[in-house]
Amino acid sequence: MKISVIIVSAGVKNYIHTCLTSIFLQTYLPDEVIVIDNSLQPKFSQEINALYPSVKLYSANENLFYAAALNKGIALSQGEFVLCQNDDLVLDKAFIQEALQGFQLDQRIGSVSGKLLRSGGTILDSTGLFLSLWRSAKERGYGRPDRGQFDQPGFIFGVSGAAAFYRRKMLEALRLPEGYFDSSFRMFYEDLDLAWRAQRSGWRAYYVPTALAYHTRGGSFRPDSGIDKPLGRKYLNDQLHCDLIKNRYRTLLRNETWLDFLLHLIPILIYDLCAWVYIILFRPRMFKLCFKHIFRQSGTE
């Protein structure tokens, strides 16, 4: 089985080095490692080329953010299975070997998640991506102590974008005109949107708890004060916060059925009320920006 690993990096801190080190120490080595460089720093790409000559590096002329960067990386890759990940993620040495077992259970399993822990190794970051009652993205176990409560493998809704292992056959089947992910999302909800499209098309996702990885939540885009903290939206800048709101709406519009929308209407309204009240009370300058952002994007459909 040919494995491709795609890492999107903004060149922040030392994340890319610890990330790449963990990949090259895998018990099942990938056939290719591709780094999409969003740093816009020539020194960063020069350093990667010098230290990791086997890595295929693509340096963007502009910040592609996460979704478009993954589209570029997947298009450049050749693996039958593609691991898409953040650079603030460190893999356990057996991650790839363990995760591959999930794909072997059924040809309709198109994505696999491992157990993602926070960098300290005691707090859960994600044990699978789910669609919440509020029709938002829910990382199972997020922020809870790891007491073995999610140590059983099984089917899940989708996989976290921090460490998303995909079967290429599924990616090609779900490809949009602009790529595998909706590039207009930039970041946030691109993983749930793909997972939802996969579910609608009959593909399944599987959780393998023995595939371990360690994630510094928000390491690439939050300030230091917000790393690994709950309620991550309060640490986002205005533009990213607007992306978070807008992308949820776009995901719902693309994937939700009218019946399910009506069944979940009350939780959806409660969620939106809380989200907009937070903006009005604590970040009022975002109100106009978010509305303009949402309607401008909708007008380009």
How would you sum up this structure, described in words?
The chain is of the alpha/beta class and 301 residues long. The chain has ten helices and twelve strands. A hairpin with a 5-residue loop joins strand 8 and strand 9. The N and C termini lie far apart (38 Å). The mean pLDDT is 90.
- Estimate what percentage of residues fall within beta strands: 15-25%
Unreliable spans are none
Helical content class: 25-40%
Task: Based on Cα principal axes, name the global outline.
Answer: globular
From N to C, what is the helix and strand string?
EHEHEHEEHEEEEEEHHEHHHH
Radius of gyration: 18 Å
User: What is the number of helical segments per DSSP (H or I, 4+ residues)?
Assistant: 10
Sheet/helix structural class: alpha/beta
Sheet with the most strands?
10 strands, mixed
Oligomer: single chain
What average pLDDT do the residues reach? 90
- Give a count of the beta strands, DSSP E runs of length 2 or more: 12
Distance linking N and C termini:
38 Å
